[in-house]
Design a protein that fits this description.
heterodimer, A: disordered N terminus, B: about 900 residues, alpha+beta, four-stranded antiparallel sheet, disordered C terminus
Chain lengths: ~425, ~900
């Protein structure tokens, strides 16, 4: 775009920013062709005298250009490659970033070899001294390369298990596989030391360690990932550790202690139902008490209100607890919920809705509401009245039980 | 609930925001827009499970609007609207792009003058107290040792005489002159310093407001679904002070336009409505409203009647209100004092958090925000620096941070939170119910409350104005991505397409798209005269203060209705359809048509287009281009017609034409009226105008107050004057403001006659009376001539010799006649002018049938047919039950419409003459 001569007052900076606005507008209207044409004119921004502005322009060109090429109906991988290669070499500071994004693009397109070559190239790139951020990004590039090595490793592993090969071929293949493992493990090991979210890296690293029988190493990696305070509290870290320990057939106490922490972070996770079963089976009274709290906590969340398994567990467990005369456990869990659970779970509207949509859920909830709120509860009354017509017998037993055991009447006593 | 088992790899390195070299700024999804469309890398080999998915567009289509811009939904309100202050008003930099059109300006010198006059006690009071020792103001002898006491008694005497204010030619006694020469510098400096500080403070607050008007965060437009699926209500504020809450019933239909059913239910509030929130939980529909110092809740019955539940008043001002999506009747309110409370009409208030300081680092803003989370007993508490999860049951200061402006989310320097919204819904088709949306001035973040501090998604929205409105909609089809609407205060809209159930992380599935703005509708309106066009443009460019999208029930193809509320009080809507994209399928047709009309209204853009040398620049067609269909254009035209009937707002810079002096010397009976007028103006939040203070002084009406539009009197008058027919025009106006079309032809003959008649006589008639008028302008001469005609037609004038009529007129003009006093009050004025007109045989050229028209125009009766008038009585009865005020209100509205017809002949005659002395200067 030439700088306008006819109009006074429109200068270089203004035309550049107008052009940028045009490109953004076209992108937001999904007019890829139009955007690409404007982008050609935006290249003038690279002639800015201000080096900082030039840097920003470069980033803009990459950001917008890659987005356009990603969506443009006529674009293909070759065009994208050509664009990325050109962009990498314009500015020193962006080389690594663009390389990594380029690799991600290729990976998305399923071109693993190309991506690998790209990452390799980026890794060996040197230009003067690296800044702290460049060092970090090199680590990330290496980690991605490690992940690709792991892909090859796991491919070789399936091949090896599928085909019966003679001894020599097997040992050669195993060695080959092992070299991939070594390459991958070095890089993956490095990245998971830095605080961050590294789910795919940790998973693949642990899988390889497990394969080679390094259970302690794998456990250490997972424990560090879960319990290092510098890391964000990632629920997946705890779940990976739990699953690993479960596979390892670790003692129940160990499993419970892992899930106890997860319960504190994410009380709504579906694995909490498994946790409840673990606690229920446990001999310790403390664990059994926690088992009730876990169920209550799951049902606190709006996404779990119609979780039929949770309600089933709760109804069954409450029955068991009432029979075992641990009334105070129920009262303890109920005290912080009694002011809002009746409207949240046991309102008349919900009774009608649940009965209409899911009768089993309604029955479980009615039983629970009967125990927690007594026989006068609206939910209980509605469902037992409706249920009386259909399932006379089971309703009768339910009513009987509620008459005998509910925390309201017990409080009065 | 499931947690996504594979998250995108990212660094987590805490630190302050804006570190250019922070590794946190390499948060993967924030690198480039397209990477947000990538799924996190799997542990399986990509070739085993390739991510080759059909693109969003080929799979679902694209959201498209029916019309190129939104259409007006409701008639414009009866109140005029004046555009707010803009940055250009304060800065005066750069060249002006719009040379015409009255824009608000701040005249500092004038403001200071006004301030000194109106608030002399504030400006000079402290100084007076300091100097009191040295002046004797008429007390019994005052003498202090070592002090010079000046006797000011005589000075006061001089001042107590009739002193016209601000007149530089007024008589000054020698004493006064000496005093002002000696004391002027001292007095001036003191006041200047003080006022400078005040002015600076004022400018600072104004500038802050311009940068971010946080009051409208959340939006003041909401939808309450009704008992039947196709009927609901829009809730929004109107009125100049936004203090009228409207509940407008709307009927939706799957294919045709939405229909407003009847008039809205109106509720008058004490303050301006800033935010309206609605929720329907367990079939109980609630509407919560936030005003500056009050919050209120209404329950909407199944029939759609709002019943007030409770009102809460906050001393320091409320900043946010939200309704619980879990429990009916539970709210969270925040105030500027830093307190966040859980409020339920049954149980009252419970304070959850109180901290005047901000969460993460120090920020002067007192803005606080609260919303609910997936757990009914947990709230998010937000300020400009961070968002915290707080348990209602626990102690107030515990809880963990959900988000902080810092390196973890790779925030920029100066980035601040503008909106924090809980996106959860109980629908199983929706996203995970643990997601929160956080908007800053640069980016949009999605956070999962189960993984705090690490954004699940980040997108740079590149909106020019702060995004203060957002809404997540249900998926148009099962399995389809969910549209997330984002609205900037400047009216820019973005739509994002999100996917991700409870088992996978939220992700963009398609590039975000922009939606048409209100100002895109401008080509749909007929072209108007310059001021009309300017009015329309200003109106369409008014800031966006509310946004709500409604999905009509049982539609064959996915559609939604998008309602927008602007600061001018206009409700617009547009219908969006999710339609298969034809352009994506035949990409070859890309380089065909030419669409350069997109930015026709911006001169800069145009110039850019012209100078660019590439011919193929505009070769990109807009595949979604739709044109204005006749029905839409008719809708726009109808709306415009009503809009032009609204009297224009007075320019905001008009200085008030009264002063303390004026107020103090009022007659007893006028005082009550003045007070009422003052109160009325204060409730409406507008300037106090002359009309509020009772009788208009017999001065000439400023021409700027005349309405333009279908009956643009100013233009007519100017045109007539240019043709030399000003007098005739004036006369015709006096006969009534609505002159039938036939009239001009008859007028023409008369004009020729009268002008020839008068031009012969003028010089001879008037030259001997006033020497200054030897060479009057043609316009002036004409009006005088017409007056002479008028006078000669009046019964009393016939007996007066011609040469004495001018003197008589001058005398009448000066005389504060009983007549003029009674005429300027609207009630008595109507009959008098009418009886005069009908009793005067000389006026027979005015058809008699015209009188009733005049009456309907002037009369405040609700029976009149025009939309404007029928709305007035409604609003008026709501505004104030006081009949005294209602009359003031009417005089206000009608004074603008019917200025010319108000003046009795004596007054009309005095007008041009009053101007005479000024011509000498």
């Amino acid at each position: 775009m030439a700088v306008s001569h006819g109009h006074k007052g429109i200068n270089f900076a203004q035309t550049t920013s107008i052009c940028l606005n045009f490109i953004q507008e076209a992108l937001l209207k999904h007019q890829w062709q139009r955007a690409s044409e404007f982008l050609q004119h935006y290249f003038q921004a690279l002639e800015d005298f201000n080096s900082q502005k030039r840097q920003v322009a470069l980033q803009n060109i990459w950001k917008l250009g890659s987005a356009i090429l990603y969506h443009h109906p006529k674009s293909n991988v070759e065009t994208f490659n050509a664009f990325a290669d050109r962009m990498k070499n314009i500015g020193v500071q962006n080389y690594l970033k663009i390389s990594l994004q380029h690799a991600l693009y290729l990976l998305h397109k399923g071109m693993v070899e190309e991506a690998y070559r790209n990452l390799n190239q980026a890794e060996s790139w040197r230009y003067g001294e690296m800044s702290a951020s460049q060092e970090k990004i090199i680590k990330l590039i290496q980690a991605y390369r490690g992940l690709l090595d792991y892909y090859t490793w796991s491919k070789k592993r399936t091949e090896l298990s599928k085909f019966d090969m003679d001894g020599f071929a097997t040992s050669a293949a195993t060695q080959d596989m092992h070299s991939y493992f070594r390459q991958a493990s070095v890089n993956l090991h490095e990245i998971i030391k830095i605080p961050g979210v590294w789910d795919p890296f940790v998973k693949s690293y642990v899988e390889m360690l497990e394969f080679y029988g390094d259970q302690d190493g794998a456990r250490q990696v997972l424990t560090d990932y879960a319990y290092d305070n510098n890391f964000p509290s990632n629920p997946n870290a705890h779940i990976y550790l739990y699953k690993f320990l479960k596979k390892e057939k670790a003692p129940e106490d160990k499993l419970i202690s892992v899930l106890k922490i997860l319960h504190q972070i994410v009380p709504s996770h579906k694995i909490m139902l498994e946790f409840h079963m673990l606690l229920r089976k446990s001999k310790k009274e403390e664990h059994q008490k926690l088992g009730l709290e876990v169920l209550f906590a799951v049902l606190d969340f709006s996404g779990c209100t119609e979780n039929i398994t949770a309600w089933k567990y709760l109804a069954k467990y409450l029955k068991q607890i009432m029979m075992e005369k641990h009334l105070n456990w129920v009262q303890e869990g109920w005290s912080s919920r009694k002011d809002w659970w009746p409207t949240f779970h046991f309102s008349y509207y919900l009774a009608k809705k649940n009965w209409k949509e899911n009768k089993i859920l309604a029955l479980e909830k009615a039983f629970t509401s009967g125990i927690l709120l007594g026989k006068g509860c609206k939910y209980f009354m509605y469902v037992s009245k409706q249920g009386h017509k259909v399932q006379k017998k089971s309703i009768k037993t339910m009513k009987k039980f509620v008459m005998k055991h509910n925390i309201l009447d017990s409080e009065e006593l | 609930m499931d947690f996504p088992d594979n998250l995108f790899p990212t660094f987590f390195l805490p630190g302050p925001p804006g570190l250019s070299d922070s590794p946190g700024s390499y948060l993967a999804p924030a690198w480039s827009d397209y990477t947000q469309l990538l799924k996190p890398p799997q542990t399986q080999h990509p070739s085993v499970n390739p991510q080759h998915e059909a693109s969003y567009v080929t799979k679902w289509g694209r959201w498209r609007s029916d019309t190129p811009g939104p259409l007006p939904f409701l008639r414009p309100g009866a109140d005029p609207w004046d555009p707010d202050l803009t940055s250009r008003d304060l800065l005066f930099q750069g060249r002006l792009r719009h040379p015409f059109g009255a824009k608000a300006t701040i005249d500092v010198i004038d403001q200071l003058n006004q301030f000194l006059r109106d608030h002399g006690d504030i400006a000079f009071g402290p100084l007076g107290k300091l100097l009191q020792e040295n002046f004797n103001l008429g007390e019994p002898k005052k003498s202090r040792k070592g002090r010079t006491v000046m006797n000011a008694e005589r000075l006061l005497q001089d001042l107590s005489g009739h002193q016209p204010k601000g007149c530089p030619w007024a008589h000054l006694s020698a004493r006064q002159r000496r005093f002002s020469l000696l004391g002027g510098t001292v007095l001036g400096e003191e006041v200047e310093g003080l006022l400078g500080g005040l002015l600076h403070e004022e400018l600072e607050t104004r500038w802050k407001e311009l940068l971010l008007d946080e009051a409208s965060t959340g939006g003041a437009l909401a939808w309450v679904p009704g008992a039947k699926p196709h009927v609901g209500q829009l809730v929004y504020p109107t009125g100049r002070a936004y203090n009228q809450l409207n509940f407008q019933k709307v009927k939706l239909s799957p294919t045709s336009e939405p229909q407003a059913l009847g008039d809205p239910t109106r509720i008058l509030l004490q303050g301006p409505v800033r935010q309206v929130v609605t929720r329907t939980v367990q079939e109980e529909a609630l509407v919560a409203v936030r005003s500056d110092h009050h919050c209120a809740v209404w329950q909407v019955s199944r029939q759609g009647h709002p019943e007030p539940l409770q009102v809460l008043s906050t001393e320091k001002g409320a900043t946010g209100i939200s309704l619980s999506p879990h429990l009916p009747g539970e709210l969270a309110v925040c105030s500027r004092s830093g307190a966040v409370c859980l409020w339920s009409p049954q149980d009252g208030l419970q304070q959850i958090h109180k901290d005047p300081e901000t969460l993460v680092f120090k920020d002067p803003s007192s803005w606080r925000w609260a919303d609910f989370t997936a757990h009914p007993r947990m709230l998010t508490v937000a300020d400009r620096t961070g968002v915290r999860l707080t348990d209602v049951r626990g102690p107030s200061d515990c809880g963990e941070l959900l988000f902080r402006v810092g390196a973890e989310a790779s925030c920029q320097q100066g980035e601040r939170i503008l909106l924090a919204q809980y996106l959860g819904t109980s629908s199983p088709l929706s996203l995970s119910p643990t997601l929160h949306l956080i908007c800053t001035q640069f980016s949009l973040y999605l956070l999962d409350e189960r993984l705090p501090l690490v954004p699940m998604m980040k997108w740079t929205h590149s909106l020019m104005s702060p995004p203060l409105l957002a809404q997540l909609l249900p998926p148009p089809r099962p399995g389809a991505p969910l549209p997330l609407l984002l609205g900037g205060r400047g009216g820019h809209l973005r739509m994002l397409h999100l996917s991700g159930g409870s088992g996978c992380s939220p992700q963009l599935v398609a590039p975000p798209q922009s939606l048409p703005l209100l100002s895109d509708s401008l080509p749909g309106f007929p072209v108007l005269e310059p001021h009309g066009q300017q009015l329309l443009q200003d109106r369409l460019k008014a800031p966006l203060t509310g946004l709500t999208a409604v999905v009509p029930p049982s539609c064959p193809s996915p559609t939604m209705l998008l309602f927008q509320l602007s600061a001018a009080g206009d409700v617009f809507y547009q219908r969006l359809w999710l339609r298969p994209d034809t352009a994506a399928k035949n990409a070859d047709s890309l380089q065909k048509s030419n669409s350069s009309a997109d930015h026709a209204d911006d001169p800069d853009l145009d110039s850019h287009d012209q100078t660019s040398a590439t011919p193929s620049l505009d070769a990109a067609p807009d595949p979604g281009a739709v044109s204005w269909n006749p029905r839409a254009a008719a809708c726009c035209r109808r709306w415009l017609k009503t809009l032009l009937r609204v009297p224009p707002a007075l320019p905001s810079w008009t200085p008030p034409t009264f002063s303390q002096h004026y107020l103090r010397w009022l007659r007893e009976e006028d005082r009550g009226k003045v007070r009422e007028g003052l109160q009325a103006a204060m409730t409406e939040g507008r300037l106090l105008q002359q009309g509020d203070l009772g009788p208009l002084p017999p001065s000439d009406p400023p021409p700027a107050h005349e309405p333009f539009g279908p009956e643009d009197k100013l233009t007519e008058r100017l045109e007539a004057s240019w043709e030399g027919k000003g007098a005739i025009w004036w006369e015709s106006q006096q006969g009534g403001s609505q002159v039938p079309r036939k009239r001009p032809s008859r007028e023409k003959r008369r004009t020729q006659l009268s002008s020839s008649f008068s031009s012969v006589r003028t010089t001879s008639d008037f030259s001997d009376i006033d020497s200054r008028h030897e060479t009057p302008s043609p316009l002036h001469r004409m009006s005088e001539a017409s007056q002479s005609l008028e006078l000669s037609q009046e019964p009393w004038a016939r007996s007066v010799p011609r040469e004495r009529r001018q003197t008589l007129r001058d005398y009448l003009a000066v005389l504060p006649s009983v007549d003029s006093g009674s005429c300027s009050t609207p009630q008595s004025q109507n009959p008098s002018s009418q009886t005069f007109l009908s009793s005067e045989p000389g006026r027979c050229s005015v058809p008699r049938s015209q009188n009733p028209t005049t009456r309907t125009l002037l009369s405040p009766h609700p029976g009149s047919s025009s939309a404007l008038c029928s709305q007035n009585p409604n609003s008026q009865s709501l505004f104030s039950p006081d009949p005294g005020f209602s009359s003031v209100f009417h005089s206000q509205s009608s004074s603008i419409q019917s200025l010319p017809s108000r003046h009795t002949p004596s007054l009309a005659g005095s007008q041009p003459l009053k101007k005479k002395p000024r011509m000498g200067f």
